[in-house]
Write a structure and sequence with these properties.
Number of helices: 7
Number of domains: 1
Number of strands: 6
Structural class: mainly alpha
Distance between the termini: 37 Å
Largest sheet: 2 strands, antiparallel
Strand content: 5-15%
Strand order of the largest sheet: 1-2
Radius of gyration: 18 Å
């Protein structure tokens, strides 16, 4: 029985998604990696704990609408992306999503909110992509909303909608770490060459 447990327990931990780890290491944790490209890829791997977390993936779908919750179930009520990534006429995102989170009566969850609230464009959909593919997409101005690496750093480090991921309201697990650490990791990743994991 011990040998079965010894094999199964590590296997369960290895099968967990990147975001299952609740902490985000700071860039100095990677200083011992001498090869600059390897260090850069490792920094992005750490950023992946945030990028592959439901707080990000729910609004970075490749389909016609968002998912919701920590289990990424289909949005309820059913909604569609719409032409401007803001829902369909008569059922735009701000029909339900206001400028801030609203706790439901009885405190049993909340309706998330931030101004503005919208989906990422389809070109920035990440669901189903490997971390290396997400990395390549994020670096490509043709697929990242026209952002330079400097603008990407600003987005990750200071954009309020990105920051919402760490303050998602009742009933939702926040993204790992903090936006400050995520911004530091982004800066260090860029400064080491913005290499992507294989």
């Amino acid at each position: 029985m011990r040998s079965v447990t010894a094999v199964l327990v590590p296997a369960l931990f290895c099968a967990a998604p990147l975001w299952a780890k609740d902490d985000l290491q700071t860039p100095d944790a990677f200083d011992a990696i001498a090869d600059k490209a390897e260090r850069s890829a490792a920094l992005f791997q750490e950023m992946g704990k945030v990028l592959t977390h439901p707080r990000c993936l729910n609004c970075h779908p490749v389909t016609g609408g968002p998912t919701q919750g920590d289990d990424m179930h289909p949005h309820d009520p059913p909604v569609v992306r719409g032409e401007a990534d803001f829902g369909a006429p008569g059922m735009t995102c701000n029909t339900c999503h206001g400028a801030e989170n609203v706790t439901l009566t009885g405190g049993q969850g909340s309706i998330p909110g931030h101004e503005p609230w919208s989906l990422a464009p389809v070109s920035m959909g990440w669901v189903g992509l490997s971390l290396g593919e997400i990395c390549q997409q994020i670096k490509d101005p043709e697929r990242n909303g026209g952002k330079t690496l400097e603008e990407l750093h600003e987005h990750n480090a200071h954009d309020g909608l990105v920051g919402w991921g760490w303050h998602p309201g009742a009933g939702r697990e926040p993204a790992p770490g903090s936006q400050e650490i995520f911004g530091q990791l982004t800066r260090a990743w860029i400064d080491t060459g913005a290499a992507c994991p294989g």
